[in-house]
Amino acid sequence: MTTNTRKDTSSIHYRHEDAAYFEKRGLRRHAGPWSLWALGVGAVISGHYSGWNLGLASGGWGGMLIATVLIAVMYLGLTFCIAEMSPALPHTGAAYSFARSSMGPWGGFVTGLCENVEYVLTPAVIVFFIGSYLTGIFETEAAFQPIWWVLGYILFVGLNIVGVELSFKVTLGVTLLALAVLLVFWFSAFPNIDFSAWALNIGEGGVLLEGGNGPFLPMGIVGALAAMPFAVWLFLAIEQLPLAAEESVDPKRDMPKGIILGIVTLIISAFMILFLNPSVVGVGAYALGQSGEPLLDGFKAIFGSGTAKILALVAIVGLISSFHTIIFAQGRQIYSLSRAGYFPTFLSVTHGSRKTPHVAMIAGALVGLTIMLISFVGLGADQSSAVIGGTLLNMAVFGAMCSYIAQAVSFILLRKNYPSMERPYRSPFGNAGAWATIVIAVVTIFFQLSDTTYRVGVVGVAAWFAVGIVYFALIGRHRLILSPEEEFAVAHRERADNA
């Protein structure tokens, strides 16, 4: 039975649902610190296989290095903010939950909408790169690409639906295997590199320099800043860990450990791949700046085409790892907003016996796949590759940047307005880390909007935000439900008001 219980000063209407509502939306606890580490690293690791390299075309190797350093600083600030907030607010809502507690229902909804764009589009970009690798390995026609995408979604949405135990086992296994493949690449690349001749083979204006030894910043400092959206791909989605809070055995202890171990692992891997992949003899920064499968190009140069295909088949586990884990996050993110009434509530129903948010995962997958297929059919195989591999990537990054700004603002406001809130872990960087996140994220967005190639996609995301805000203003704010995130936020607000 449903009864209305609250109407706050912002005309936000809540209703209290009975136990049966939440029984149909139950989750199962399973994850420990290493499962969480694998969830964070596994979600990101595909960015070390494909995607980051497109930034070489914007800023050259030196520009990409500067961009990566700046983005690494941003993610350090962000992850330590999350390491403090997630055990203090251990709910599946993650970014939405942080913003809901600090900025009210409107802040929670807008933050959730930003994160939703990231988690719907990121798997689409990753499965595109999976298709690129498989096309190279099996030498299928470009027109066959959508088949790879559909098969990828069916297989990994299915694995995530089977159960959280299997999902985390697969996540840990493929993450370890993905890192092992990177280790093989690093050690095999070291004897086969010529940094000056190949990593510095981009001249001023982005032209190819035969023989290399080009400038450190061929496109200047502006090129370095323009490469920032692509450097994000080396770390994008580490912030998804708190989405597993209600499936973690001890989130107050394990969340900080998992996310800090994860970001340290990713920073080491990011700088290794940035140095070695463009430096391999026969590859080079210029070619990688236009490649859909840079790691495969590196393997080909080292081992030859025949052996490289075998290694690339193994290397694809990096993409699979990220695809699998972000499907997990996508489901939980949609589930949490739906359970609280921000999205239609049918999306939060979980599987009767397996307790996984199967409806949310299927719905998110269908939206991502539909966007890809519309691009493919409307633009053709050649042009759609640029849109999906580049434009959708930037759209996902734009959604992520907006989410990061909101999470950093949430951190600052929670420290200011709720100083007595129990915090099992406190960020050593404090508000300085949050401000660094905000500044670098704003700069990244600015350079996304400065790039005419990707501006249409970013504007498209902004339009989607506008549609969502209109929906919430007219309908959603009248249908909110006192889910765990909402109960927590309302209770803390009432305590603060009465203090």
From TrEMBL:
The chain crosses the membrane at residues 34-52, 64-85, 106-134, 146-163, 170-190, 216-238, 259-288, 308-329, 359-380, 392-414, 426-447, 453-474. It is found in: Cell membrane. It comes from the Bacteria. InterPro entries: AA/rel_permease1 (IPR002293), APC_superfamily (IPR050367). Pfam families: AA_permease_2. Its main location: membrane. It is a multi-pass membrane protein. Keywords: Cell membrane, Membrane, Transmembrane, Transmembrane helix. This is Amino acid permease. It comes from Modicisalibacter zincidurans.
